[in-house]
Amino acid sequence: MFGKNHLKENIILGQSISYYIYIWNLKVKGIWKYIPKLGKLVIYFIPLVAIIFIIEDVNTFIDHFFRNEKVPFSLLAWGSAGQIIFTLRFVYQFYYSYNKHESLLPINFWIISLIGNIIIISYGVFREDPVLIIGQSVGFITYTRNIMISFKSKKKSVVADIKQEHEDKNQEQEDNRL
Question: How far apart are CA 153 and CA 147, in angstroms?
């Protein structure tokens, strides 16, 4: 999938979805309105041009992707699953943010990122692709750190809630004594 002859097609197709979700996030954050109209037009059409480039050479893409004797189909399916999961993190983030009416990165975004990332790294290991392994390893560290930060934050929040409940109970008991 990410190995030789597959990098261009898969990244372009997978990232096009993420690209338009980024545009939505820019709109939600109020940044989009500051981009000039010509800039917006260019931004909208970049992925479309890339997809047209792939479609123009669709037979080569199919041959390299589905009929590549150097890459077993099971490995191709594994790498593709990783890329699909990795892309779906943005779909999840869009859905979550849309329902909250603001652009957010919930913990499940980081968990989905980590799962897709691990699959892509393992694909890189099987393909013996050091560029892919090193490139994705930075993400592995970032996603793991963000998950840990989120759990620490939730733990602090739970402790604060328990303390507040305890203080409220003590205040209530004090008020009842008076």
Answer: 10
